[in-house]
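Lecture 7 notes: from sequence to structure.
We start with the chain below.
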Amino acid sequence: MKEEETPYIRVGTCYFKKVKMPLVSKDFLETIIKWNAEFIKQDMGRDFLSTIPKYDGFCVIPDHINYQPVVGSFYNKYLPFEHTPRPGEWPCIEYFLKHIFQHQYPLILDYFKLLVERPTLKLPVICLVSWDRNTGKTTFLQFLKALFGGNMTINTNEDFKSSFNSEWIAKLIIGVDETFLDKKEDSERLKNLSTARSYKSEAKGQDRYEVEFFGKFVLCANKEDRFLIIEPGETRYWVVKVNPFEKEIIGILDLLKKEIPFFLYDILKRSLVTENESRMWFNPKLLETEALKKVMRRSRSKVELELLSILTTIIENKELTDISFCINDIQNWLEYKKYMTISAMNIKRILQNEWKLEPTSNTFSYTRYWFTSDGSIEEKSAKGRYYKMDLNMIMKYDE
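Predicted structure tokens for the same chain:
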């Protein structure tokens, strides 16, 4: 039997069988499953074992253009690209992508071109959000699955949160439908993964080991402003508010699938309209959306939002262009607003970590402001190592 016709391989000291697993969509997913040598002997004969191709181990080398099933003496677990580009029209894909990404349509075309041609490149985390139904968010995930096959996976929130990540850690695209990762540790994990070059793979009952990581995340969420914590200034995310279809297209996914070869042909011929201007390729300014700002505002602590409101009130009331203050001034302001006692450490974290402010190097005089019982604002001269903000800075953080 020729090597390419042999469904069995030996990797290290273990045997595997290459199979095509049937899917609900009536497609097949090519995968490998562990197989017992004794059963291979029973099915194929004792001498057959010596004809099985042997490899030293597994590797994951993504390539859609010059794919190699074997790299050196290692078997490549990245699956071959299923589609052959050819000339043709793709009006349904064009309509669908314009519906979702609107004026950012040229950017998503660049995103797809980079995915196909440079799969190891770091790209922004796409977040499709909408309170509405029938928007196409889940269909976008299914379209990606049809395009990249077994190299893309659609997970649940629990899959992402689990420490056992071997099922998705080596995929090109990791989709999460109905995303709700509102814990700080979840957002930190996603943030770190989006720019990581390597990560620890862990399977139940097996030792952890380090693998190269090239995955891109695509999140779909119904909760527009609280599916994830995105801190102000963050540049890893591309958040898009998706509107409902004006008219539902029955069987749109089948139409999209039929056009994939034509879409790929034009994508590969097309020149990029963007340049590499950040660690996630795109200039962050191009990815700024109202939907992103909405999530950032919602991700801020109530204390930070209240403090910005207080600063704005004082500046407007006193007609100032800038204001100086110490941490104990802020504590007094927040107490006046009926907040529980906020520690100096928490306030310092907001000022220095979130707003990137530094106190004066020594004790100097400044004007202190405080609220009286009737709501008026008084002032007097005081001394301290104060922080200073001007009106433009406050408006920027309050935006």
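Points to note: The radius of gyration is 27 Å. The mean pLDDT is 87.
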